[in-house]
Amino acid sequence: MSVVGKLWLIGGTGDSVRLVQSIAKHSLPCLVTVTTSTAINLYPTHSNITIEIGKLDKEGIKQLCKRETVRGIIDASHPFAINISQQVMEFANTEGIPYLRYERPSLKQNAQAIYLDNFEDLVKGNYLKDKRVLLTVGCQALSKFKSWHKNTVLYARILPKLASLKMALNAGFAENQIIALRPPITLELERALWQQWKINLVVTKASGKQGGEDIKATVAQELDIPLIVIQRPSLTYPQQTEQMSDIIEFCYQCFQG
Fold first, then answer.
1. CB-CB contact of 210 with 13 (8 Å)
2. What is the value of pTM for the model shown?
3. Same-domain check for residues 64 and 125
């Protein structure tokens, strides 16, 4: 198939790896952008797949699309990475570039969990007081909990990266309050960690099965520990899907005409 230009897939999650694997099988030219060098090894090696590392701002998005003659954009970024999604949607709309959001399936709400719209509602409330809290919310959110270190015992689980460790330390977490692990985390390990630290409250994000939300809900129920789930940010996408078949159809449509 001889085509001009490329698809641009915004990656960095396990979902995006599966999408790229499928696109590679169809031999469609695709540029994948990720934010860390460790993510590169997760993607398939294929003559039609190019991978670039780095965070993009508005000007970077513009230059990338011009340089690669981007024919269509597949946004498979993390559900909480709203900045890149907002910027790309705005640019795609202005330039008339087809855009499709891949949204990982949400889990059915657990009747025993507490669902909050944002971190602000959590830190301003009284949910954390005098608790032993495990935060599985990503390193960027840890600074929001600085004011709580005097009133509760906080533990943070982060990715095993130097930048993540620095952010946790800067947010007031001591070395013995940090554990660095790369997902996926098994149910057995999840349970053991909660028991080791005598956790009696867990905070996570609504990141779906891919983010281990289902396992945390199961362990919370087993150990009778409250689970607070921060809901995904609400964005209006021009079009979105949870289906792989829709992604491939979109890819072919981008090269028509």
1. yes
2. 0.86
3. no
